[in-house]
Amino acid sequence: MCPNPFDIIGVILNPASGSWKHFPDAGTPDGRAKLISQWFEGADCRIYETRGPGDGERQAALAATEGCTVVAAAGGDGTVREAISGLIHGSGLPLAIVPIGTANVLARAIGLPVGDIAACARIAVEGQERLLDVGLCNEIPFMLQAGIGLDGRVVRTVNKRIKEKLGAVAYVLNAISALCTATAPTCRITWRGDDPGKCEMLAHQLIAANFGLYGGAAQLGPLIDPTDGVLDLIVMQSAHSVRLRAAADCLALLRGGLLKRPSVLTHRFTSAEIECEPPADVQLDGDWVCQTPVRITVLPQALRVRVSR
Question: What's the pTM value of the predicted model, to 2 decimals?
Fold first, then answer.
């Protein structure tokens, strides 16, 4: 590694994350500092440990005020999303990702070598920068998707102890359980963009997508572009057989053919308001955040991210 002598890397990490259990020496601050030093191979790093939910935003902003020139989120998608929140509303520093979470979907989506931590650290120091759009849901940032309905419920109800033991498999098991009791609220949607409109319908799932990669393995659609200044709204309509329709949509998603289903509608938008009756769960990049109603917007090319050259 040939560190840029002018770069100071502010490393944001969550010591309470179950991901650190995979590293025998990570049980203490000194142990984690040693690991960071090994991964970054002599680069000038400063470590900022989070202490609770939302603290990643504050730590990312603090790193900027203390002279860091790059913020590296060492964790999963939740840690990354919190760091992004601290960057887009303040310093505008570039973000790097050292993926050690459960799914690491954003890292996969931007082509990082997930599983090779040292290589990701090298990219944090030596990589090129790419400008990406950022979504906002009730002013809370997200990079991948805002999911409303079934997947929001899955994220809200996943057992944390099972997640720590089984990783992403915990979400799969919980999704199967959720499909067995799936419901379809009445959704009222208003969107703006090149083709504005509004609709009201029964839907078991809505997705506002910035990236096409969903859940780390499935593709929502090949034309979803995180640099085009718009988000893609995907509406999975329901009929009387809600659970059968939801199961069929899940299968189509896994096979890469979700958008070919006649019951699935798509719209491109720059802002949208969504109400559901009864209220539906909302997840952002794998974290439950609220229930509807929500307002979703996009910040075009608002984040600089370090990627492979």
Answer: 0.92
